[in-house]
Amino acid sequence: MTSIWSGYNNVGICATALISVLRHTEHISVPKALLVMPLVMHEATVRHLSDARVSHRGSAALAAQRPDLFTNFSERYDASLVASVNAIQLLVVYGYAIFNDGLSLNKPLQIDKSFGKRAEKIDKASSHIASLLSSPVDELYLNFRVKI
């Protein structure tokens, strides 16, 4: 298996994505938090989820409608585990989140143009990502084809 990791997908972008999603959910379990980075490290997925014309559907509907977004999701999941755990730790250490039976929003972080266009696009997609993650965790892992 070839690695799909790059410096482009790093702890900072993962922390930005997590805090953006937390603004909409206020709490997220660790298994669900670990799904955020594989979603945002795929440009086509972020483009789709940030499109205002796209309706917020559940994970099963999205996987059925756009299977191309999940063809290598399990590999992205594996490649992003370290960054995801480090991003969770970073958010907790700097007081943006509290780790208590998952990750809870402690103080919001406003994502603006100083974060860059990619972070702004991820922030725009974050409400749709939060909506997706409202499904049961076992359903998410099944629909996103994560092999554990």
Automatic annotation (TrEMBL):
Alphabetized InterPro entries for the sequence: ABC-3C_MC3
Alphabetized UniProt keyword annotations: Plasmid
Listed Pfam families: MC3
Record protein name field: DUF6521 family protein
Source organism (scientific name): Comamonas endophytica
